[in-house]
Amino acid sequence: MANSAGAARRVLSAFLAASAALWLDLSAAQAASDAERGEDLYLRYCRGCHGADGRGGAHTFMPHVDRLTEKGYIDLLPDEYLYQVITEGGAFVGKSSYMPAWKSTLSDQDVNDIIAHIRRLRLH
Questions:
Q1: CATH of domain 34-120
Q2: Helix, strand, or coil here: 61?
């Protein structure tokens, strides 16, 4: 039993260390984000569903997508969450599986640039 507890502590410690390293990597990348470049990427990869202004209603893809610019929603979501949604897809975070995982298409820098652009969109 003592060996199980020790193993569990080692696994937990390794997980926490890996999570901290990922957070530091994301924080550094976010600091160097380019919202202008992110706008170009957003228009290419995201506009079809989320609309050019982030208000949804593009009606080019089903199901209908709600606004990314909803005040009291998007502004409360941390960048790390948006990063996960974009890279892993909607189903990864319990959202629609119609939101694809872009990790094989977009680099980490691309994703952080898109997030920087989303943060500049006007909230409604």
A1: 1.10.760.10
A2: coil
Q: How far is CA 3 from CA 7, 13, 36, 65, in A?
A: 6, 15, 53, 49
Q: Residue 12: what are its φ and ψ, rounded to 5°?
A: -60, -45
- Number of Cβ atoms within 10 Å of the Cβ of 38: 23
Alpha helices in 46-78 (DSSP H): 47-50
* Of 74, 67, 106, 70, residue with least CA distance to 89: 106
Q: Which residues contact 37 (CB under 8 A, 6 or more apart)?
A: 113
Residue 83's CB is within 10 A of a number of other CB atoms, namely 20
CA dihedral 54, 72, 85, 28 (to 10 degrees): 100
Give me the pLDDT at residue 87, please: 98
pLDDT tens by residue, 66-124: 788 999 999 999 999 999 999 999 999 999 898 999 999 999 999 999 999 999 999 98
pTM as predicted? 0.73
Token pair listed for 124 = 């409604």
Q: Give the three-state DSSP class for 98.
A: coil
| Token pair for 110 | 């691309």
